[in-house]
Amino acid sequence: MQTNTEKAIHATYLSIIGNFMLAVAKGITGVFGNSYALVADAIESLTDVFSSALVLFGIKYSTRPADSNHPYGHGRAESLVTFIVVGFLLISATVIAYQSILNIQTPHEIPEKYTLLVLAVIIIIKEIFYRIISKRGKETNSSSLKADAWHHRSDAITSLMAFIGISIAIFMGPGYETADDWAALIASLFIVYNAYLIFRPALGEILDEHVYDDLVEQIRIISERVDGVQGTEKCFVRKTGMTYLVDLHLLVNGNLSVTQGHEISHATKDRLMEQLPELANVLIHIEPIDA
Prior knowledge:
This protein is mainly α. It folds into 2 domains: 4-206, Cation efflux protein transmembrane domain (Alpha-lytic protease prodomain-like), CATH 1.20.1510.10; 213-289, Alpha-Beta Plaits (2-Layer Sandwich), CATH 3.30.70. The chain has 8 helices and 3 strands; from the N terminus they run H-H-H-H-H-H-H-E-E-H-E. It has a 3-stranded mixed sheet with strand order 1-2-3. A hairpin with a 2-residue loop joins strand 1 and strand 2. Helix 2 (36-62) runs antiparallel to helix 3 (76-104), helix 2 (36-62) packs antiparallel against helix 5 and helix 5 runs antiparallel to helix 6 (179-206).
């Protein structure tokens, strides 16, 4: 059975190969089919190749074990890589918007009809890629993989806008040659919005934002089933890479010895780590209560 890390790495390789092949297909079709929107789309796919490579690096680096200089591990590297991926999205959106504005001002021929067929295939492929990578991102709790998935979705949106623009240019005839350029310009705005959707949760991870109520509830339920645990108090969760760090306060009989409290603490930690494999570590504090 594949580990979360292996799933994430395989998904990222799929992104890199797929983005490169689609970038080549878009570029060739755009140049020979007189579609500036497709050329802009190809540029975005090329940036996707580099961003996916960064995601691969981030996933591999973030799974390095803890050491003396990084006692909490290297998981935060994944969030930092997500910020870089967002940067690539913003750069590609800027390039597409700038090139679209230039093309709108430059007279050119109506795109060839076969570009629509190519775009239709690309849209379907990119949506499939989005669903595959997004599923892997959710399975592995990888923020950078989720960001990579949104790259595919933004690419599908760009291609869809290009499809609409080229359709208008072809079927409306002379005077509508720039329709695909306007479509690319609008698509760049969608990409910026997607960049924000990716950036926001990654920022929350860096700032240890509390958004893990479901996981906290699971932790409380499991802990309270351990012999000697009479309840739970504070429970803090923070995400690091594809795993979570937990600070938990347990309520136990105040008349127990230090050794007995220590044993309950270890039993609870072992139970949590066994039943919730996504936890990297659990730090438990014992709170005494009256018998």
